Amino acid sequence: MGREVRRVTKDWNHPKDENGNYKPLLGYSFTERLKEWEEGNEQWNKGFRSSWDDKNPWKPKEADELEMTFEEWYGGKPEIEDYMPEWTEEEKTHIQMYEDTSEGTPISPVFDNAEEMAKWLSDNGASSFGSSTAAYEQWLATINRGWSPSMVADSNGLRSGVEALS
């Protein structure tokens, strides 16, 4: 992806590691991911794996998958410390801009409205992609949309998603 607005609590302080760097956190629901993983593991143990077919989401494992563990095929069991907190909708009163090329770390403070966040991002030269920055209007469009890809390559060249989608 690239840049993503995450809804947070007013007093949210993104956790840091022992060196003072932001700890990357995934932006989707830990509870939902854990449920998906557990269901997948259960089906795996029955001899099935997930399928892209909406009508039949499970299909028999392929020959080269028979000796694999579910973790080798799908990945490890989700761990709660790798995810954003699961606040209620009522608790998520503010917004914060994240880079989510990896799991996600904040690139802005917490704000209570889009206009203040867009002003801060443009005034502080926040990265829209690499060393690229963006203007207030471009950031505001991204905030209102909720996200932008890292970059776009088109007939106008290579540009940040914040710039290209504005």
Mean pLDDT: 95
Which value, in Å, is the CA radius of gyration? 19 Å
N- to C-terminal separation? 16 Å
Number of strands: 8
The coarse overall form would be globular
Poorly predicted parts: none
The helix content, as a percent range, equals 25-40%
Order of helices and strands: EHEEHEEHHEEEH
Q: What oligomeric state is this?
A: single chain
Strand content: 15-25%
Output the structural class: alpha+beta
Strand count, sense and barrel status of the largest sheet are: 4 strands, antiparallel
The helix count comes to 5
Number of domains: 2
**Arrangement of strands in the largest sheet:** 5-4-1-6
Describe the structure.
There is one protein chain. The chain is globular. The strands form 3 sheets. A 4-stranded antiparallel sheet has the order 5-4-1-6. A two-stranded antiparallel sheet has the order 2-3. The protein has a two-stranded antiparallel ribbon with strand order 7-8. β4 and β5 form a beta hairpin. The protein has 2 domains: 104 residues, no CATH class; 53 residues, no CATH class. It has 166 residues and is α+β, with helices and mostly antiparallel strands. Helix content is 27%, strand content 19%. The longest helix has 16 residues. The protein starts with a strand and ends with a helix.
